[in-house]
Design brief:
Elements: H1 2-22, E1 53-56, E2 61-64, H2 67-76, E3 84-88, E4 95-97, E5 102-104, E6 116-118, E7 126-127, H3 128-141
Antiparallel strand pairs: 1-2, 1-3, 3-4, 5-6, 5-7
Length: 148
């Protein structure tokens, strides 16, 4: 009888490890299936690893093909608590915290927002708040304020 309970307990333990291992981690960016995952803002497939972004809320992780799409999504969803905001570093593609990132302007990006995230300030780069204002101005100037 003890053996049976031990086997059941071991089986339940293994199942719990599988469930935890297969789920999204509790923090940090999640894996992207390039060419298949779609942008939560414009619905385009994520394909450019240098300009992708992710926003983690309490409910889920949103993925974006352009850092500007992520900023636009945040502006258009003020009721969502953004717990983490990740953007790909334009230089090496690693995920960096968007809220502490700096942005090159005038870049060629998937949806033409023109912002390239970088981890260190450069002479002509702007900070997160300035990038957010720039995207808001673009949305306010466009009829309907949606994606292109």
């Amino acid at each position: 009888m003890k053996r049976r309970y031990a086997r059941v307990a071991l089986w339940l333990l293994l199942c719990s490890f599988v469930v935890v291992a297969c789920g999204d981690p509790a923090s940090g960016p999640v894996p992207v299936t390039w060419g298949r995952d779609t942008c939560s803002h414009c619905q385009m497939a994520l394909g450019d690893q240098r300009h992708a972004a992710q926003i983690r809320s309490a409910a889920r992780v949103e993925k974006f093909d352009d850092g500007g799409c992520a900023l636009a999504w945040q502006i258009q969803h003020p009721d969502v608590e953004v717990r983490e905001f990740w953007m790909a570093d334009e230089d090496d593609g690693r995920w960096i915290d968007a809220r502490t990132a700096h942005f090159r302007t005038g870049r060629r990006t998937p949806m033409d927002f023109g912002l390239g995230a970088i981890s260190r300030a450069e002479a002509d780069s702007i900070d997160f708040e300035a990038a957010l204002r720039r995207v808001k101005e673009r949305l306010d100037g466009r009829a309907g304020g949606g994606a292109r």
